[in-house]
Write a structure and sequence with these properties.
mainly alpha, Jann2411-like fold, two-stranded antiparallel ribbon
Length: 180
């Protein structure tokens, strides 16, 4: 959601369905409320420090009235967490689920791994799952684009330095009787 804050009803339902959100269909006021919520989610990823991320995620938990419960959907089914009751409606459930998810990441020590892509013009929010936790880009594609651009800029700068050096190396003596 943080990467599609202005999603239409169909796209929002598709994203929510991919995460097994019960009855993900949204329209009208629900879409508008979830767009505003998505902007706030994005703010957690964009915060500069873990403390700022935790503060923003905590505010989301409060505003979502997140109250985790252990539930199961029938006898013999496993228990799992619901962050808001199904009867609370889609908006409340999504708000509680996303706030709870971010809180779990931060609580588990992953707050420093919530990032936004550093490629200019991208800004995709992501969770860095790399071994060393130093990823700066959301995807290999973005990393490659930045690396290719940097390589080309270095080559241009080197060519410009070489051209400038060659221009200074040519002697500029006045023509006279000894000139060839």
């Amino acid at each position: 959601m943080a990467n599609h804050p202005a999603a239409g009803a169909g796209q929002l339902a598709s994203v929510l369905a991919r995460y097994d959100v019960h009855e993900p269909e949204a329209g009208g006021a629900r879409v508008a409320a979830l767009e505003a919520w998505a902007e706030r989610l994005r703010g957690v990823f964009a915060a500069g420090t873990v403390a700022e991320r935790a503060e923003r995620a905590d505010a989301l938990l409060i505003d979502a009235d997140c109250r985790p419960r252990l539930v199961r959907h029938g006898e013999g089914m496993p228990f799992h967490l619901h962050y808001a009751p199904v009867r609370a409606g889609l908006t409340a459930r999504v708000m509680a689920l996303t706030a709870g998810g971010l809180a779990h990441v931060i609580d588990g020590g992953g707050g420093s791994r919530l990032r936004t892509c550093q490629r200019g013009g991208c800004g995709t929010a992501f969770l860095d799952t790399s071994r060393n936790g130093r990823r700066r880009f959301c995807s290999l594609r973005c990393a490659n684009q930045v690396n290719v651009t940097n390589h080309r800029n270095r080559r241009r700068a080197a060519a410009a330095r070489e051209s400038d050096h060659d221009a200074r190396a040519i002697p500029t003596t006045p023509a006279g009787p000894h000139a060839r």
